[in-house]
Write a structure and sequence with these properties.
The chain has 122 residues and is mainly α. It is built from five helices and no strands. The protein folds into two domains: 33 residues; 78 residues.
Length: 122
Amino acid sequence: MKRLALALERLALALALAVVMGTAACSVNSATSNVATMDAGATKACADLRDLAGNRAGLSARDLRDRIGQMFTDSQASANPIIQARAVALYTDATYLAEGAEPGSFKADLAAMEAACRTPSR
């Protein structure tokens, strides 16, 4: 009887471990499954970025922030976590600039967003 109870206890432990690991694997998969997705939100955000690149020279810091803010809003409709994260970083930089702060990592974040928009799935 003790052997049966011990065997059942081990089986229950193994099943619980499998469920926990399976759940963790699924949550990681959902976070990374759309990395190369250029859906409508990502496409619009990248189009906003290309438009900004063509018109950036004449923009004030506040206008730049507003344009990047639109790109940020468009990116949030995307399932692509890289596009979303890059847009957040760029919008943060633009907000700092609009408030009179130093550019900080603006150029690096701009380059990273441009790179994220050049995905092989397009």
